[in-house]
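Async update (no meeting this week)

Hi team, since we skipped the sync, here's where things stand on the single-chain job. The sequence we agreed to prioritize is pasted below, unchanged from the tracker. I ran it this morning and attached the output directly underneath so nobody has to dig for it. Comments welcome in thread, and please keep replies under the output.
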Amino acid sequence: MQKGDSIGSTTLTLSRADLVRYAGASGDFNPIHWSESTARSVQLPGVIAHGMLTMGAAVQLVTDWCGDPGAILDYQTRFSAMVPVDEAEGATLEVSGKIGKVWPAAESGPGAGTVRIDLTVTDPRNGNAKILTKAQAVVRR
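Output:
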């Protein structure tokens, strides 16, 4: 395992139904996530996905790679673009991950025995807009 190694990639699809289910699970019933007219009335391009849904869906790549969601010690990102979810076509996100840093187990300190995964999350239907920036997960090896 070395810096720059790929952990894989995946394509995520979000539908309006996914947004409604997420709203129910999270308690975030902001109408910009389900009402086209409300979203457009506040100058959005239409209904948009919840940021935390996008963030959570993206980290699934790391969970699949490491095989244990409990091995993810830290996960953070910055939101850099909205994810419009078309009523008919939904939204598509491309997620890829690479090893950004490896801390050997022999080192002392809080990072010992961990690896940082850097995620790239883009929207191919929106000019490959980068949806999340500095999306990084620290995983116990």
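Quick observations from my side:
The chain has a mean pLDDT of 95.
The domain at 6-13+49-140 is CATH 3.10.129.10 (Thiol Ester Dehydrase; Chain A).
Reply here if anything looks off.
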